[in-house]
Amino acid sequence: MPLLKIEEFIWRHRRPFVVLFSVVIVQFFELALLHVKYDIFTGGFLQPHSYRTLPERAIFLLLTLWYDFFLCGILASLWFYTADRLNKFGIIIYYGFTVIVLLAMGIWLGLKFKVLSYFNDTINYQIIRNLGGGSLREGLLYASNEIALFVGIMAVIIIVFIAIARLLTNHEFVRDYHQQSTETKTFKRLLITLGVITPFLTYFISENHFLRYGLQKKTSYHLVSSVLDTLTDFDGDGYGLLGYPKDPALFDAQIYPGAMDIPGNRIDEDGIMGDAVLMPLKPDPLRAIEPRAGKHIVLIVLETARFDLLEQQINGRYVAPVIREIARTGTSIEYAYSHTGYTTTSLMAIFNRELINHDHRHRLIDYLQKSGYGISIISGQDESFGDIAKNTGMTNSGVYYFDARTAIKDRVFPSKDPGSLRLSEERVVAQFQQRFNELDLDKPQFIYINFQAAHFPYSHPNMQKILIDDFIPRSEIRAENRERVAETYWNAIANADWAVGQVVEALKRYDLYDQTTLVILGDHGESLFEDGFLGHGHAINDAQTHIPLVFNDPNIEVREAIGQVDVAEMAIRSAFGLPNQRLDQEKTVFQLVGNLKLPALIGHVKYGGDRIVFDFRSEQAFLSELQQWKPYQDWLKDPQQKERMTHIIREWENLKWHEFEYRQRTKFPSAQVYMHQH
After folding, report:
1. 561, 311 contact by CB (below 8 A)
2. Phi and psi for 333 in degrees, rounded to 5?
3. How many Cα atoms occupy the beta-carbon half-sphere of 53 within 13 Å?
4. CA distance 439 to 275
5. Rounded to whole angstroms, how far apart are CA atoms 519 and 500?
6. How many CB atoms lie under 10 A from the CB of residue 554?
């Protein structure tokens, strides 16, 4: 009897039960894939948030169930309405709905996570753009074999589902099963209740970064929030009330997040701190230095190098003894910073000497070619990734070019995708030595070398174990193993230091060390779980943006913050024997996380490490000297902080404007008149 009552109860409420059954299965597989890809319940590489405690996981799971049930419920109501209109009934109707939902989500999740796997370490699409890369077309081409296998598996599953459906349809018991048992109105009432509450819940989540981070990766939340945001986009500018970021002026199409704030038109298009105020770009100091021959220049960029590598020890041994010796006899810049925390944009800042796409500054390679330098590019990464080579002049006529793409057979990992392609330090050193022996050293030479040793996962199968006995396996890289993660990372830095030593040895062997300006710097830093995060490009802090910058020239005096856009000029001054003093302690280095149009964070850092950080998501600002977050409007009311708060917003707006002006001017020359009028 109890079983019959349960059966009757389930059948009377069969529609919500069918939806719940489908949702539970989808939830299981989607959350499993999310965790495998994003370490969403334990934390992992490039993940700013994770749900580690029981309450956090419970809240997250309940919210994902809510949105899955709501979305699946809407689809179910349409399915059942159609079945009712066609006078169809029986288990086959509910089986058919379940099969279609599971197949559709299975295909979607399979394709989605296969494409995501193409990008390996670059976890989300915003970071992919910032790191410079990721072509969906290339990803599909690269994954074509796996996708073919996936399609084959899905075809078999579909055949099985169809066979079961035929069996159910031909079974008399199924056709007549509970024909007289009517459905209650529970499902309709439940769906209406969800429909009323969901917009308010979505608004709350859109204001909560922690919850939104995980939920926006869920298909159901993404679809529901996108539809609701579109419904509240009353002015048609692409932003509404229930998405992120929100439209600050729902009925004014000129004002929306990331809008170009045109200076002087009395309209605050981006909704931040009033109308933009135009400031001219600072003159390019290289325009005052006549191109000429000087010392050789060797520029070494270390992937993912933290500033503290100079003092770090493992088991009583310094991790970078070679670079320490260069710093001791030369100059180590104490406060040097990456502007963005990403490889692509950092390299463009170094070579192009600015943060925007513009022509007002000489590019390093162009300037050195005018000075008569030979140019050699020897890189352990794929410099075509994010169009680095194209945009920095590495592919100029007459440039010797070698990177991981040109030596693809020597890659350290099987993957051929641009974001993961890399060469060992030994292979890069061998290429440097070969090229160095070919050079006409009576002519000034510029050599760029990129060592990828410290790229995540901080080791490769043939890497030297200089400081440790074993690498931490990639599968074990998580917060609870932070010490082993750090040891593996520092061993990678030791390998990079060894490679630098080989370059120094070659220079000394040819008696060229003192006739060469040697520059060593990092592209960005790396959080190693000390702030609860692994990776870079998610925060403006010392771990992720403070970098080593070392010259072998002792005649450099620096008492100001140095950004990567400053490095090329310093190297040229050193090579030309010009004064090389930077003593403005109030100078700020601009930093950002995200894209320039609509960043997540922007910041200024000064000599001594004093920072101000503005968070666009909450419109709050942080002052490191006070260790305090406050709404930026409150800082503007503070006479002591108003200038700093104003300066950081104005610099961001001006960078955006000057890049926009340049793009418009070069794309539409007639637009120059419009720009000058405004």
Report:
1. no
2. -85, 115
3. 3
4. 54
5. 11
6. 10
The values of phi and psi at residue 124, to 5°, are: -125, 165
Residue with tokens 């915003």: 126
Model's pTM, two decimal places?
Answer: 0.78
Q: Read off the tokens for 571.
A: 């190297």
Beta bridge partners of 332: 550
Q: What are phi and psi of 254, to 5 degrees?
A: -80, -20
Give residues with Cβ within 8 angstroms of 645, minimum separation 6.
612, 614, 621, 632, 635, 636
Dist. CA 647–CA 253, nearest whole Å: 27
CA 26 – CA 100 distance, rounded (Å): 12
Provide φ and ψ at 25, rounded to 5°.
-65, -45
Using the structure block, give the residue that is written with the tokens 């910041």. 603
Q: Which token pair is 423?
A: 């060469």
pLDDT in tens, 330-380: 999 999 999 998 899 999 999 999 999 999 999 999 999 999 999 999 999
Q: Euclidean distance between the first and final Cα of the chain, in Å? A: 82
Q: What is the pLDDT of residues 472-506, one digit of tens each?
A: 998 888 888 999 999 999 999 999 999 999 999 99
Which tokens is 471 given?
A: 């690498």
In contact, 422 and 411? CB cutoff 8 Å: yes
3-state helix, strand and coil shares in percent for the chain, rounded to the nearest 5: 50, 10, 40
User: Helix 2-12 and helix 14-38: axis angle, to 10°?
Assistant: 80
Residue-wise burial string across 340-356, b where 16 or more C-beta atoms lie within 10 A, e elsewhere: bbbbbbbbbbbbbbbbb
Rounded to 10 degrees, the C-alpha dihedral 362/365/371/372 comes to -160
